[in-house]
């Protein structure tokens, strides 16, 4: 889990991606795939390494199809998101970036049980196929919502370095 | 007196923006989502500029924009959008600016002054 204090954490995600040789299933709720690809190009990360589950572009644009992406309109539907992650991981994109948990826990339909079920499914499934997943989350949300109950499920929690944000 | 409508579902945004605009001589009205905005415009509100969060619960903003007539709209966006997409959004004549969140209030004020005087 990558814990964020500020918005500018994409460079940390790209560091994770660059250290891996796996292709990426990027689940996005707050950046358009086009923006992520534009930013990734600056890090010399090839665009064909990405497959997107796009839960944002349809909210702001009427036409948004890019290659290697599926759009999800009911973005609080974790079962549907799980199903898509599984399918895309099976296609050869087993490094899952989930950006972010903070964007989904604001919905009333998401609760402790559904989040834990979702996380457990993903961890178990990705373990079986030698995949990995990184979740992004605002630091404040860990205490405020149900996420504190999920912390034991994570292998590693990466906090941003203080100097990054000058605090 | 110029009138600004702030449309955002986050009180943490509405409150300080409203305060700074009012202190600088603007009349401010608010709405909590795109549907609320449309309802108020239909009820007779005539803002000179709408500062509108680009993603809010309820009807997507993009579906409301065509119903707002010729009112100038500046998007407030927490969403990461590519340069090409920004240009694409700005092709809509109503959209006069895209302001990235988080923003500094003094800079927002400058942008508002530039847009409506």
Write the layout of secondary structure elements.
The complex is a heterodimer of chains A (167) and B (117).
Chain A: E1 2-4, H1 10-19, E2 24-28, H2 33-42, E3 50-54, H3 57-60, E4 69-71, H4 78-90, E5 95-99, H5 101-104, H6 112-128, E6 132-138, H7 139-144, H8 162-165
Parallel strand pairs in A: 1-6, 2-3, 2-5, 3-4, 5-6
Chain B: E1 3-7, H1 11-23, E2 27-31, H2 34-42, E3 49-53, H3 61-64, E4 72-77, H4 83-90, E5 95-100, H5 105-116
Parallel strand pairs in B: 1-2, 1-3, 3-4, 4-5
If you had to describe this structure to a student in words, what would you say it looks like?
The complex is a heterodimer of chains A (167) and B (117). By secondary structure, chain A is α/β, with parallel strands linked by helices. Chain A is 41% helix and 17% strand. Chain A has a single domain (2-162), classed as 3-Layer(aba) Sandwich (Rossmann fold). Chain A has helices spanning 10-19, 33-42, 57-60, 78-90, 101-104, 112-128, 139-144, 162-165; strands at residues 2-4, 24-28, 50-54, 69-71, 95-99, 132-138. The radius of gyration of chain A is 15 Å and the shape is globular. The model of chain A is unreliable at 162-167 (pLDDT under 50). By secondary structure, chain B is an alpha/beta fold. Chain B has one domain (3-110): Rossmann fold. In chain B, α1 packs across α5 (105-116). Chain B is globular. The mean pLDDT of chain B is 94. Chain A binds chain B through residues 7, 10, 30-32, 34-39, 56, 58-62, and chain B through 54-55, 60-62, 78-85, 88-89, 101-102.
Key phrases:
heterodimer; A: 167 residues; alpha/beta; Rossmann fold; six-stranded parallel β-sheet; 8 helices; 6 strands; globular; disordered C terminus; B: 117 residues; five-stranded parallel β-sheet; 5 helices
């Amino acid at each position: 889990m990558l814990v964020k204090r500020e918005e500018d954490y994409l460079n940390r995600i790209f560091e994770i991606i660059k250290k891996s040789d796996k292709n990426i299933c990027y689940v996005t709720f707050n950046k358009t795939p086009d923006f992520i690809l534009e930013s990734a190009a600056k890090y010399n990360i090839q665009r064909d390494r990405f497959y997107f589950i796009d839960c944002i572009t349809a909210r702001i644009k009427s036409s948004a199809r890019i290659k290697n992406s599926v759009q999800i309109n009911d973005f609080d539907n974790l079962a549907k998101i799980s199903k898509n992650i599984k399918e895309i991981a099976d296609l050869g994109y087993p490094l899952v970036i989930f950006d972010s948990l903070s964007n989904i826990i604001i919905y009333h339909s998401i609760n402790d049980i559904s989040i834990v079920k979702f996380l457990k499914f993903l961890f178990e499934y990705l373990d079986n196929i030698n995949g990995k997943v990184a979740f992004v989350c605002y630091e404040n949300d860990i205490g405020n919502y149900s996420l504190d109950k999920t912390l034991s499920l994570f292998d590693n929690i990466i906090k941003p370095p203080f100097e990054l944000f000058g605090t | 007196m110029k009138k600004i409508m702030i449309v955002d579902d986050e009180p943490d945004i509405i409150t300080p923006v409203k305060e700074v605009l009012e202190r600088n001589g603007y009349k401010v009205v608010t709405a909590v989502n795109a549907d609320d905005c449309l309802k108020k415009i239909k009820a007779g509100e005539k803002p000179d500029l709408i500062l509108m969060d680009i993603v809010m619960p309820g009807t997507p903003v993009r579906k409301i924009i065509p119903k707002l007539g010729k009112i100038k709209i500046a998007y407030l966006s927490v969403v990461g959008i590519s340069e090409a997409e920004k240009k694409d959004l700005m092709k809509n004549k109503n959209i006069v600016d895209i302001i990235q969140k988080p923003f500094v209030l003094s800079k927002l004020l400058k942008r508002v002054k530039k847009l409506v005087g």
